[in-house]
Amino acid sequence: MNSPILPTDILNQEHEAVLKKLDALEQCINRLEEKEEIAADLHELITFFHTAFWVHFDKEEKAFFPEFDNFMPHGVGPLAAMRDEHDALRNTEEMLAEAVAAYLNNDDSSPTRQSILQYGTHFIDTLRSHIVKENGLLPTMAQMHLKAEQNARILSRFAELEKN
Prior knowledge:
By secondary structure, the chain is mainly α. 80% of the residues lie in helices and 0% in strands. The chain has one domain (7-163): nmb1532 protein domain like (Four Helix Bundle (Hemerythrin (Met), subunit A), Up-down Bundle), CATH 1.20.120.
């Protein structure tokens, strides 16, 4: 008998895909002096992190985390810390996207490259750490607190968020 797919299974799969994108982004920002060789990949990665990636955070914030509101006080604890990290990551990604846009639009000056390196490194390191924390905490929390109907509700909401 097959076990049903759980929301944490989907989130963990997405985390694995994001970690691969972070590796590729790290390779690009470490080769900024090779603009012609990395421009297409850098553009693709920044586009991913500036658009499609945020669906993952929406799944967590709008579908998964709310199911814990009956078990944990809202605004404190590990989920509040994760939400705060999401906000910090959004801010860093915005600054990184601006610097990359300038770089790809013919401003490959030293200050622009330094901004990409600074914001990119912070984004990569913070997101990797964040994923490690979520992978360690979320499955345990879900197993302890979520019932089958809650998991089904979360999965349904995931599907809605992906459509939008």
